[in-house]
């Protein structure tokens, strides 16, 4: 028996474990962390030889292939067992089934496995990558005893030797289907999806937890100035369109790539030209964007490239440039801009640096007109705190900020203040004093900035889009419908992570947020316990809550004693976002969930910092085609876009799972049927170990006569179309919860097989018992009975495969009918070869006699019918009583096909109505819980986010002071 | 590779596109037939299969019932003989007995005579393999290599012909049938040949080549339990002697069951017996050689006719009736469920 790893309902269907193979060298990334210190001797040859940096991820070379491969194969318990059986069979007079009936299939299997290994290793050689998985199948120990040996050999096929081969081939083909999928091909980088291992296909269908990196995975890592609100007027904001976009069915709408990713609203410039009442504000706003930053322009030919340590600032400067306020040059003490054709120079007096504490940055400039002015941009709350009483547009701006935030845009408030010479000079004195302080200078400086950043006048707000990859929100919505819990693990800041959470619709405004930011173990424990208590009975269930935790707190939350309550809390939330986490923490989180929750985890990422979690998760997915290849090279599957995950999981994963389980169950079924018959026969022959069938008929049962149906089930079976799988993500739950393969289903199949074997054996036995079956009175022998039973078995088992098949491709027909035909042809030939070839004397003349026997033909109808009528009746009764979702979808598919596509296009068509009805029914959510604990922040987010390097060796102001782009430009010219 | 041909490679494009083929096979969009379990197809097929099976079943049962069969257990009727045979030292003492029976009606048609054994495990593994098919082909083979042991050679090295446990245990009773008509006793003419499979008689069993049969078997000895050597199995008919003796061939086809019957003779349809066996008194004259008390077995002699469908066994018919009933019942149950839940089923039409 295959032993299951898990006791619970979730079983890895084949008993295959994902584990690193200790035989193959560790991967390159692992080596990096643990490199010991090296001593380098100067001016002399190195005394110790270090390992070169040649990375070999392939498993075999030409020389090592055979010994290593054989060792690997024999290490598999199943193969060792079969080798043992094959050896036992060599003892003369023990085996009832001949000497070579196990050895030959074993060699066949090893050959197949060898070919597969060669192909996969060839790929590894080519890609120079490592996929190290090993398979283990554990078996029950086998008792000894000479008399028992016979029985062991007789029943060894209950562990179907062919199952392993079939699975190898099936999974390999499934992997090919992933590689071949044109929907997962990314034309821009010419990257098709790649399954780097074929052993985890079915786990793709069981994923319950998805851990995703943010940058490069969810987002393109491109920031765009998208919208703004200036003096109470929004630009680039079209709420009507947005509302439509957010409506139910994503598939009806064009993908988000097609929409403009740049700021595009002609009204803004028109308002300046037409002297709109707010024209002055608009100009001031754009000037601020062009002046207040730490970006350095680099001129290459005629184009200016902005070097920004903050992508947000880069986006703003580029946005201003597009609107005619071009930042052209920087000197140590000034900024030169080209404002609608007029060159203006702003003297930079001070740069009040950004810090995540301050959440704002300002510059103090002397305008071309000679006025002193402070330009400030920052988070809404800090800016609003510092606005002067005269400041206008506060309410409108706040309202706009809320809109922007809903869409997950990164917002900054923009304000300015005019300074008087006196007050500036006073402040400058304080500032100069502070900047020479040695102790706590950073903090003192911040306090000092505080003094002058006041009485601000609000100009408006900017909204920057951290551009998501195409189709990300749709994919996430689909995955959520498929009840996959999504955790975002990012190194980014909380605000950024939150914004992405909103923009990819992982979090909605209606969701409550739990923010956990603590800086001690006790505080963390207290906070987590408090939240858990507040949840009360809802703990452990899924609540409409998002948990946001940062890496600092996580350090404590992941410690042994707090871990459980953190996990309890996290698992009760619909979404979890971990920000500012280190690569190690990423893999720790994955590891924790993997160990404590009996579920399949998947990690997806693109960079080197995701390698850990990709390797830790059950299934690792790498985003290929971008920056480094580390993530791809350590992953099990590589796809070019996050959105392809949808198809990878919902279609390929679910299908593969279905197929593999059907294949396994069917293989067990057909072997139980055949070999239990031998058990029944043992009752008749005094447990002597005599077999009812000819030995090679048994030997070839799995190799030829019933070999094809498992392949067609494993390769071509599809319960419903790809479109339906994607349209009804709820179908994923079937595979996710292992409804198709659990202990109950397994034993159900075994019991069914048992019943079939009873019918298949005892019916013919009782019919032939009196030995008068021919009209010429001639008698029969044991093999005559055996061949009739065997024929019935082949027919029944093939038809059973037909029953299991929901989509009959031409290959299914070939497998079902072809297998029967194969047996018949073999039977005919095999019954005529003695004594021409010295085998099968008992078979001589059997086919002729069997086919001449009237009982045989009568039985050929009634025996498979009796077996299968039961199965069909059971299924039909269940189907009539209650249709599962799958069956409803299947029915819908048939109806849609019958009605034709014309009906589908017709919006009043019945089929469409039905689909909508089903969609609505599925879309209906459980009513939102009324529970709102006081600890849960029902916060209205305004979407502030800003990233900037902090606490660098060189401060931002020093950086900007060290450039003089005008000089360089002059030199070049 | 379609891409290569349809799009000429563009400038600067060094390698061909890695875009997968958009074929139905690779995109898993092969046309497929998707059978649906609609209530109409399910019910119609269930009732159809049910009706068909019931009809066929009734026919089969009726025809099996029309088979005439007489089975007589003679293992105890010749009690003296059975006791005599318990001691193997009496192997060469002849023992005869007779068994009377009466036919109240004629048995018309071909009548077959079988001998039946009960509790004789011909299907035991060690027994089944104990034979040399190469030897039975008339080839001069080294039977030591076969599974014939311990019935391979005598101590002096003389090989047994035929070797093996199956051959050694061959059924060697002789049964003759007499018709007692008005105090005259007529021996019923019985056919000894034509009772075995054609392939056995003509391909699988061959006598060794020689100028006569006894010389062909020179240097071999009869199996220990046999009363006469293999070349004396039928002294009257050259083509029924040696390995190609029908009784021997039939015995060598081992049964799947511990209780079995083998065809022994067919009534030759001539004279009074042209139409079968007429009603009247009959006697079996049995030369009792085969011991059954050792393994607590029974011996029968059976007279039987056959019909188009086979012998007297009604099981096939019963199986059809049962299957037919089950299918019909299932049909009714599904109908009941369907009718009860019809409202629920019209979900989409609402």
From TrEMBL, chain A:
InterPro entries with a match to the protein in the record: ATPase_P-typ_cyto_dom_N, ATPase_P-typ_P_site, ATPase_P-typ_TM_dom_sf, HAD-like_sf, HAD_sf, P-type_ATPase_IV, P-type_ATPase_N, P_typ_ATPase
Location(s), subcellular: Endomembrane system; Golgi apparatus; Membrane
GO biological process per UniProt: neuron development; phospholipid translocation
GO cellular component, one term: trans-Golgi network
Entry-linked Pfam families: Cation_ATPase (PF13246), PhoLip_ATPase_C (PF16212), PhoLip_ATPase_N (PF16209)
Record-listed ATP binding positions: 791
Catalyses which reaction(s): ATP + H2O + phospholipidSide 1 = ADP + phosphate + phospholipidSide 2; a 1,2-diacyl-sn-glycero-3-phospho-L-serine(out) + ATP + H2O = a 1,2-diacyl-sn-glycero-3-phospho-L-serine(in) + ADP + phosphate + H(+)
Keywords on record: ATP-binding, Golgi apparatus, Magnesium, Membrane, Metal-binding, Nucleotide-binding, Translocase, Transmembrane, Transmembrane helix
Family stated for the protein in its record: Belongs to the cation transport ATPase (P-type) (TC 3.A.3) family. Type IV subfamily.
Full protein name: Phospholipid-transporting ATPase
TrEMBL record, chain B:
GO cellular component terms, semicolon-separated: endoplasmic reticulum; Golgi apparatus; plasma membrane
Keyword Ribosomal protein in record: no
One Pfam entry name: CDC50
Nucleotide-binding recorded as keyword: no
Subcellular locations according to the entry: Membrane
InterPro entries: CDC50/LEM3_fam
Transmembrane segments: 37-64, 315-339
Organism domain of life: Eukaryota
UniProt-listed GO biological process terms: phospholipid translocation
Keywords: Glycoprotein, Membrane, Transmembrane, Transmembrane helix
Region of interest called Disordered, as start-end residue ranges on this chain: 1-22
Major location (coarse): membrane
PANTHER family found in the cross-reference section: CELL CYCLE CONTROL PROTEIN 50 (PTHR10926), CELL CYCLE CONTROL PROTEIN 50C (PTHR10926:SF1)
Family note: Belongs to the CDC50/LEM3 family.
Stated name of the protein: Cell cycle control protein
């Amino acid at each position: 028996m295959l032993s299951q790893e898990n006791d619970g309902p979730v079983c890895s269907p084949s008993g295959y474990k994902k584990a690193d193979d200790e035989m193959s060298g560790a991967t390159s990334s692992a080596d990096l962390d643990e490199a010991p210190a090296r001593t380098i001797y100067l001016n002399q040859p190195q005394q110790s030889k270090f390992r070169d940096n040649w990375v070999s991820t392939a498993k075999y070379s030409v020389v090592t292939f055979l010994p290593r491969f054989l060792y690997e194969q024999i290490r598999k318990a199943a193969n060792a067992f079969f080798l043992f059986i094959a050896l036992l069979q060599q003892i003369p007079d023990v085996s009832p089934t001949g000497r070579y009936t196990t050895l030959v299939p074993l060699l066949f299997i090893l050959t197949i496995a060898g070919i597969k290994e060669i192909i996969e290793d060839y790929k590894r050689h080519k890609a120079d990558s490592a996929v190290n998985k090993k398979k283990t199948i554990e078996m029950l120990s086998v008792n000894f005893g000479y008399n028992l040996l016979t029985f062991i050999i007789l029943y060894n096929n209950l562990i179907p030797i062919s199952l392993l081969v079939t699975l190898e081939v099936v999974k390999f083909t499934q992997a090919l289907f992933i590689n071949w999928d044109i929907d997962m091909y990314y034309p821009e980088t010419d990257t098709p999806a790649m399954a780097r291992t074929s052993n985890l296909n079915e786990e793709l269908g069981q994923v319950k937890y998805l851990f995703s990196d943010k940058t490069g995975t969810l987002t393109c890592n491109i920031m765009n100035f998208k919208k703004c609100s200036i003096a109470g007027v929004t630009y680039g904001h079209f709420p009507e369109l947005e509302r439509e976009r957010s409506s139910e069915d994503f598939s009806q709408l064009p993908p988000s790539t097609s929409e403009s990713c740049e700021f595009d609203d002609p009204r803004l410039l028109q308002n300046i030209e037409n002297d709109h009442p707010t024209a002055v504000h608009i100009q001031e706003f754009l000037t601020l964007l062009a002046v207040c930053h730490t970006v350095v322009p680099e001129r290459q030919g005629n184009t200016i490239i902005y070097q920004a340590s903050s992508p947000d600032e880069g986006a703003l400067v580029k946005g201003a440039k597009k609107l005619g306020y071009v930042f052209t040059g920087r000197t140590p003490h000034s900024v030169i801009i080209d404002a609608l054709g007029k060159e203006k120079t702003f003297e930079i007096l001070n740069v009040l640096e950004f810090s995540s504490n301050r959440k704002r940055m300002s510059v103090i400039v002397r305008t071309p007109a000679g006025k002193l002015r402070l330009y400030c941009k920052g988070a809404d709350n800090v800016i609003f705190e510092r606005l002067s009483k005269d400041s206008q547009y506060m309410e409108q701006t706040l309202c706009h900020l809320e809109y922007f935030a809903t869409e997950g845009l990164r917002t900054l408030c923009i304000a300015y203040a005019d300074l008087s010479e006196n007050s500036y000079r006073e402040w400058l004195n304080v500032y100069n004093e502070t900047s020479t302080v040695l102790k706590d200078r950073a903090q003192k400086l911040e306090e000092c900035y505080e003094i002058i950043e006041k009485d601000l006048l609000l100009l408006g707000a900017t909204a920057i889009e951290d551009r998501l990859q195409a189709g990300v929100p749709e994919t996430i919505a689909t995955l959520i419908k498929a009840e996959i819990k999504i955790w975002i693990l990012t190194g980014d800041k909380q605000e950024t992570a939150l914004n992405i959470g909103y923009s990819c619709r992982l979090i909605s405004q209606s969701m409550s947020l739990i923010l956990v930011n603590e800086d001690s173990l006790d505080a963390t424990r207290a906070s987590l316990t408090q939240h858990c208590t507040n949840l009360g009975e809802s703990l452990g269930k899924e609540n409409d809550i998002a948990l946001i935790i940062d890496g600092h707190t996580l350090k404590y939350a992941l410690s042994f004693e707090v871990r459980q309550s953190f996990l309890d809390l996290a698992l009760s939330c619909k979404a979890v976002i971990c920000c500012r986490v280190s690569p190690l923490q990423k893999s720790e989180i994955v590891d924790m969930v993997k160990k404590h929750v009996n579920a399949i985890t998947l990690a997806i990422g693109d960079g080197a910092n995701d390698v850990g979690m990709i390797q830790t998760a059950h299934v690792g997915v790498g985003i290929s085609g971008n920056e480094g290849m580390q993530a791809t090279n350590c992953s099990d599957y590589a796809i070019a876009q996050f959105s392809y995950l949808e198809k990878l999981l919902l279609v390929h994963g679910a299908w593969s799972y279905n197929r593999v389980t059907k294949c396994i169950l069917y293989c067990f079924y057909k072997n139980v049927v055949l070999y239990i018959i031998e058990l029944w026969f043992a009752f008749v022959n005094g447990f002597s170990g005599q077999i009812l069938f000819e030995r090679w008929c048994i030997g070839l049962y799995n190799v030829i006569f019933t070999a094809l149906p498992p392949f067609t089930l494993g390769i071509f079976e599809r319960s419903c179309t790809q479109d339906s799988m994607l349209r009804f993500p709820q179908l994923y739950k079937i595979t996710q919860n292992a409804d198709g393969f659990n202990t109950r289903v397994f034993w159900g199949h075994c019991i069914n097989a048992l019943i079939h074997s009873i019918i298949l054996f005892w019916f013919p036995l009782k019919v032939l018992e009196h030995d008068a079956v021919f009209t010429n009175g001639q008698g029969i022998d044991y093999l005559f009975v055996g061949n009739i039973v065997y024929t019935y078995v082949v027919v029944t088992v093939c038809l059973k495969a037909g029953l299991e098949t929901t989509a009959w491709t031409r290959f299914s027909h070939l497998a079902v009918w072809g297998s029967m035909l194969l047996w018949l042809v073999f039977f005919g030939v095999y019954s005529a070869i003695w004594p021409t070839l010295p085998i099968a004397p008992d078979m001589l003349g059997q086919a002729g006699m069997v086919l001449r026997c009237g009982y045989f033909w009568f039985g050929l109808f009634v025996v498979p019918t009796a077996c299968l009528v039961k199965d069909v009746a059971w299924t039909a009764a269940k189907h009539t009583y209650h249709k599962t979702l799958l069956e409803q979808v299947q029915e819908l598919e048939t109806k849609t096909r019958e009605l034709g596509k014309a009906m589908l296009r017709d919006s009043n068509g019945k089929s469409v109505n039905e689909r909508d009805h089903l969609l609505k029914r599925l879309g209906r959510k459980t009513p939102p819980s009324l529970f709102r604990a006081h600890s849960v922040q029902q916060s209205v987010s305004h979407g502030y986010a800003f990233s900037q390097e902090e606490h660098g060796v060189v401060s931002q102001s020093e950086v900007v002071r060290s450039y003089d782009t005008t000089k360089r430009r002059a030199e070049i010219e | 590779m379609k891409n290569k041909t349809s799009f000429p490679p563009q400038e600067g494009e060094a390698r061909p596109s890695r875009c997968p083929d958009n074929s139905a096979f690779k995109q898993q969009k092969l046309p497929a037939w998707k059978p649906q379990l609609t209530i109409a197809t399910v019910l119609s097929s269930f009732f159809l299969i049910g009706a068909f099976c019931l009809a066929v079943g009734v026919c089969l049962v009726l025809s099996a019932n029309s088979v005439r069969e007489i089975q007589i257990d003679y293992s105890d009727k010749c009690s003296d003989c059975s006791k005599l045979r318990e001691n193997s030292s009496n192997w060469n003492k002849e023992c005869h007995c007779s068994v009377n029976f009466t036919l109240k009606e004629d048995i018309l048609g071909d009548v077959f005579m079988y001998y039946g054994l009960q509790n004789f495990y011909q299907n035991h593994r060690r027994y089944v393999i104990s034979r040399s098919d190469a030897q039975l082909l008339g080839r001069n083979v080294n039977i030591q290599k076969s599974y014939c042991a311990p019935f391979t050679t005598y101590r002096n090295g003389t090989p047994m012909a035929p070797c093996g446990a199956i051959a050694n245990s061959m059924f060697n009773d002789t049964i003759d049938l007499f018709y007692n008509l008005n105090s005259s006793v007529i021996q019923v003419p019985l056919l000894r040949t034509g009772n075995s499979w054609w392939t056995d008689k003509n391909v699988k069993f061959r006598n060794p080549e020689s100028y006569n049969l006894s010389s062909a078997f020179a240097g071999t000895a009869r199996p220990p339990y046999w009363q006469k050597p293999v070349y004396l199995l039928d002294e009257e008919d050259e083509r029924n002697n040696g390995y190609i003796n029908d009784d021997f061939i039939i015995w060598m086809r081992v049964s799947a069951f511990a209780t079995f019957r083998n065809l022994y003779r067919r009534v030759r349809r001539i004279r009074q017996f042209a139409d079968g066996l007429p009603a009247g008194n009959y006697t079996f004259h049995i030369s009792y050689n085969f011991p059954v008390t050792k393994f607590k077995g029974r011996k029968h002699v059976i007279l039987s006719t056959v019909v188009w469908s086979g012998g007297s066994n009604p099981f096939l018919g019963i199986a059809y009736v049962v299957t037919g009933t089950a299918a019909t019942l299932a049909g009714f149950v599904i109908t009941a469920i369907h009718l009860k839940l019809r409202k629920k089923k019209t979900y989409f039409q609402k």
